[in-house]
Amino acid sequence: MLKRIQIQDLTLGMYLHEFCGSWMEHPFWRAKFLIKDPNDLARIQATAIHECWIDTDKGADVAPGTASVSREEADARIETDFNRLEDLPPLQVSLPVPPPPQRDHAPADLRHELKRAASICMRSKKAVVSMFNEARMGRAVDAAAAQNLVEEISDSVTRNPGALISLARLKTADDYTYMHSVAVCGLMVALARQLKLDDAQTRLAGMAGLLHDLGKAAVPLAVLNKPGKLTDQEFTVVRSHPVAGYHMLKEGGQVSDAVLDACLHHHEKIDGTGYPDKLQGDAISVIARMTAICDVYDAITSDRPYKRGWDPSESLRRMAEWTTDHFDARLFQAFVKSIGIYPVGSLVRLTSGRLGVVIEQAPAALTTPRVKVFFSTKSDLRIPPEVVDLAAPGATEKIVARENPDQWNFPDLNELWSGLTEKAW
């Protein structure tokens, strides 16, 4: 049985099933192991993560009277919270920027925008690689080139939010550092639009997303791309990147204070256990709180040298479990609204027993996206792909469960929702 408990209630003999936090927040390569070494227990309890899941079938249970939450209780609570999102009023925030110029934001259908987004992703990756290489050589960021990138990404997300954001998630492990910047830029734009920010504020948010991890240019590539467990010293080096990036951008003198702040503080947490300054609550700027959410979402949904990414909808549910400690709850709610409870690319099961992949969000509802069905669990066979609009008048089907792609191992899952071959990503 899985139970969520406080880190401080862990004891030797318990089986650690999962940390309640991103793998960026702890130095352990594995998350599932029996705690036998007192040194491992001490290292776990010294991390900034407050809770974890234990498996009582594989190790010791908590002592009687110790607070714990079952997997069923946690899932029911999150399901209830997500289903209430549509009833919440929009969150109103503002970022300090001048009035924007007018741009063409004509809506585009997913199929058309995916092709444009694939081209933007390829160009953006090259530009970000160049930007990081310049930073490694001590040269200032080309703010004008960065702004052009942000505007292209922003326009794509505005035309169709699901296209570029979902494509950018399909980065290879080797591309992660660079495409992560592109993905977080897109996610920041989508969140800014959900918050009803104007064009200039939206571009500011996008710029923060694009540049937030520039400090990783100061981290040795051998450490960034290490396929195994980081040593404590290497973990400390990685955690130095917000300060390094802040100084790189500040010395260049071409980016706003808001972007500098997002770069420096995107690893702060609401409960004050983040870094580098252990800021708490409202002491963390809105733009840094936005960046924290977008950064973690893309990180945990992306494949890394040492870990496969989580399914998009599963990632949202795990982040919801961490919200009290990690994220601004209202901003996280807005973030979920911006990409959907079942983001594009999520594998779901419908009432009929058919499996499908989410290809587009419904404009007015979070629980009724368009789904491309392609597999029957009743016959255990592939079926001709069919697009089902769950929001259409008279629709009789609905999503009854999320499915774990790793358990089904469909080789063409990404091609099914995107319509693009792997070479086009």
UniProtKB/TrEMBL annotation:
Annotated Pfam families: DUF3391 (PF11871), HD_5 (PF13487)
Organism: Acidovorax delafieldii 2AN
MF (Gene Ontology): phosphoric diester hydrolase activity
Name this polypeptide is given: Metal dependent phosphohydrolase
InterPro entries xref list: DUF3391, HD/PDEase_dom, HD_domain, HD_GYP_dom, HDIG_dom
Residues covered by the HD-GYP domain: 155-351
Domain HD intervals: 177-300
Transmembrane residue ranges: none
